[in-house]
């Protein structure tokens, strides 16, 4: 009994129970799991299973800290993050845009957390140095957020085709293409 949850040294876990047992082994540092682990990580879907989505993990940790035990708040904030990410990604993001959107979303979460921490602190007597520290944290988070937004906007602007209109020759050129169809040469 219980042997159905065990895998051999070179066998990929097939059941949820086997996967849980395998995760426990990897998390404890069991080096014998490495060959199977590396094979499993060839599938990008497994990267999340083993904690490879660090931006997502950081978001979850910050949101858990903010919401404490309030699961309604936690789920509402996580949904807001999903909506923000989807809106910023748009229909067909490039790999660079996906990375930048992750940074924008992470910075947005940090700004909200810093603002909440400051807003909570101002209602209680606090040392001036602590309040200044909160303010610096808010300012730094906001700078990183604005920088990430600007970088995303710049990348998207650079990806747009350049439109050149030559009125004298009645030409319209798009990003180095020849004259547009129907234009006089």
Strand content: under 5%
Low-confidence stretches: 176-185
Record field, number of beta strands = 2
Fraction of residues in H or I helices: 55-70%
Secondary structural class? mainly alpha
Q: How many helix segments?
A: 7
Strand order of the largest sheet: 1-2
Listing every helix as H and every strand as E from the N terminus to the C terminus, the arrangement reads HHHHHHHEE
Shape: flat
Radius of gyration: 25 Å
Could you give the distance between the termini?
83 Å
Report the average pLDDT across residues: 86
In this structure, how is the largest beta sheet organized? 2 strands, antiparallel
Walk me through the structure:
The chain has 185 residues and is mainly alpha-helical. Helices cover 63% and strands 4% of the residues. It has seven helices and two strands; from the N terminus they run αααααααββ. The protein has helices spanning 16-27, 34-40, 45-49, 54-67, 71-89, 95-121, 128-159, and strands at 163-166, 171-174. Strands 1-2 form a two-stranded antiparallel sheet. A hairpin with a 4-residue loop joins strand 1 and strand 2 (171-174). Helix 6 (95-121) packs antiparallel against helix 7. The protein is flat. The chain starts with 15 loop residues before the first helix and ends in an 11-residue tail after the last strand. Residues 176-185 have low confidence and may be disordered.
């Amino acid at each position: 009994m219980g042997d159905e949850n065990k895998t051999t040294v070179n066998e990929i876990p097939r059941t949820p129970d086997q996967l849980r047992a395998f995760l426990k082994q990897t998390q404890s540092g069991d080096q014998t799991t490495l060959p199977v682990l590396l094979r499993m990580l060839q599938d990008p879907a497994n990267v999340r299973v083993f904690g490879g989505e660090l931006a997502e993990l950081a978001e979850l940790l910050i949101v858990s800290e903010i919401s404490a035990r309030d699961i309604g708040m936690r789920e509402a904030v996580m949904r807001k993050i999903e909506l923000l990410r989807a809106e910023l990604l748009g229909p067909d993001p490039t790999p660079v845009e996906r990375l930048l959107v992750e940074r924008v979303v992470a910075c947005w979460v940090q700004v909200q957390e810093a603002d909440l921490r400051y807003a909570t602190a101002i209602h209680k007597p606090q040392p001036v140095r602590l309040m200044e520290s909160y303010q610096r944290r808010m300012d730094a988070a906001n700078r990183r957020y604005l920088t990430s937004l600007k970088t995303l906007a710049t990348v998207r602007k650079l990806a747009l085709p350049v439109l050149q209109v030559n009125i004298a020759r009645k030409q319209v050129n798009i990003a180095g293409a020849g004259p547009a169809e129907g234009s006089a040469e």
